[in-house]
Here is the input.
Amino acid sequence: MRPDPHPVIVIGAGQSGLAAAHALRSVGLPPLVLEAGERPTGSWSRYYDSLHLFSPAGYSNLPGLPFGGDPDRYPGRDEVVQYLARFAEHLDVEIRTRTTVRSVEPDGDGFLVHTTAGDTLPTSAVVAASGSFSRPFVPELGQDGFSGQVLHSADYRNPSAHTGARVVVVGGGNSGVQIADELTAASDVTLATRAPVTFTRQRIGGRDLHHWLKRTGFDLAPPAVLRRLLRAPLVIDTGAYREAVSSGRLERRPMFTRLDGDAVVWSDGSREHVDTVILATGYRPALEYLHPLGALTGSGAPLHSGGTSTTRPGLVYTGLELQRTFSSNTLRGVGRDAGHVARALATHVRRRSTVVG
Here is the structure.
């Protein structure tokens, strides 16, 4: 048996895939990176126009390349895209864009990666770093009988398309509150949530929240602790969002019970005409291509421990929410997880190479 031409294939060239590629190079395993999009910047260019990082630039670096500029600013979407493109240029690894992975199949103790273009790529190990943007979570709300428009936040760009419309935004996390707040300038908006919004201050004692997350060690808290502490989404706020809700400028109501015809039916039984419902209801890991490996639960979630597959040696993940810490799926935290799984893969690949040789 000949050694694989690509000992490791990374699926996805967003922040998680690029961090994995950097970590793999650091342990002597330059990977092949496959990216479905046109640029090695993941899904960032497809987020809504006004999106900014919640962490300052000084806390938002991938390993080996500072973000640059004022470390206290909050970079916008396009700045992040430029940063990721710059990071990819510095990697010195092969990145194939416009390459979508259709499936990953077992091949002895290795893998065969099949692309939609018809290529089959053998490899000793796989890093699944494809994120979740292509798999938005859409709850069942009776939308089949709704005559208005239902969008996920993945399809929202800016308020201009909703000028003068009656809009309900669903979701009490950062994205839901931000989108609803900016829509108030152009639309009649209600924010619908299952519980009151939980705000946390962006600056405490004159320092950004992320200073305290790092100083207290909360950023590194394990998932078991975090799941006990984080009972509801937290909205990072300068005070403006809290004021908008408390003043009534942004109306917040308990979640409606269903959509019906051209209306939402609120929890008190009242009906109200609505033009558009925007679902800021999050995402699920986009890992359908791993089904042939038996590496996922029935709902498509990865079976893993700290990013290492519990069902298939040589398969690891980067960028999963709460993969190992609070910051696992962020620019500031994914590099730590990437280093962890890269070291595990180096041991696996070298052991396999010795057996093959």
